Amino acid sequence: MEPIFSQNVASNAQLKGNLEKMISTKSQAAKYSLIVISPSEVTATVLANSREDIARFHIELKKAMPNLAFRIASVQAKISEGNEMLYADLTAPLKPVKAAGAAPPPAVAQPQNIVNELKGLAARHHIKLQYLKEGKIFNRGTYRETLYYANATGKKSQILSFFSDLTTTYPMVRVNKFSIYPYNLETISDQNLSTRINLSYFNPH
Q1: Where are the domains of the chain?
Q2: Arithmetic mean of pLDDT over the chain
Q3: 108-204: CATH topology
Q4: 47-66 CB burial, b ≥16 within 10 A, e <16
Q5: CA separation (Å) from 41 to 18, 44, 72, 90?
Q6: Among residues of the chain, what percentage have pLDDT more than 70?
C-alpha cells in the first residue's frame, strides 16, 4: 500500500477508536452536548448540574481512555429549560500516529468521482447529506490532495456506521475533523443528530 494511504489508514483508525470509546462512555454525572475529534485533539462538551458532576465525569472519562490526558478547559453557566446548567469543555491532545502498525483495509478501487461516492455512502447508511463542498487542492508528490467539507443529519447509529465505513474502507481518504452534536436538543441522544466532516481525498496525478 502507498505510504500516504498507510498514513491515512492509521490516522483514520485512531479517530475511529477514540470516537467509539467516547460514545460508549456514559455517565450519570454529565451528558455529551458535542464531540469533536481530529488527528491532533479530542474535545467533548458536556452538560452537567454542578462542578462536582463535571469533576466526576472527568474522572470517568480518564478511566475509560487512560491513554489520553484529558483536562477541563472551560466551564460556563447557561440557562437550560429555565434552569441554570453548566457546560464544560474537556480536551486531550493526541500524538501523531505512525503508519507502521496500520492494518490494510480491503482492496478498493480509486473512485472515479469521490463526490458521488460520498453521496452513495451517505445514502447506504440512511443519513441526509445536507452540504458537500470541495475546498483547496494541494500537490503532494505524485498525488493531489483535495479538501472536502460535509454536513449531514441522522440517527446516532446511522452516523456512526457511516463514519466507520468511511474510515475503514477508503485508504485514499483521510478524516481531518469529525464532530457530532444534536441539532434540536441540548445533549446527544440516539435521534436527531448532526455531523460535520472535514476530509482530504488523495488522487494520483
Answers
A1: 19-93, 108-204
A2: 91
A3: Alpha-Beta Plaits (3.30.70)
A4: bbeeeebbebbbebbbeebe
A5: 10, 10, 14, 11
A6: 94
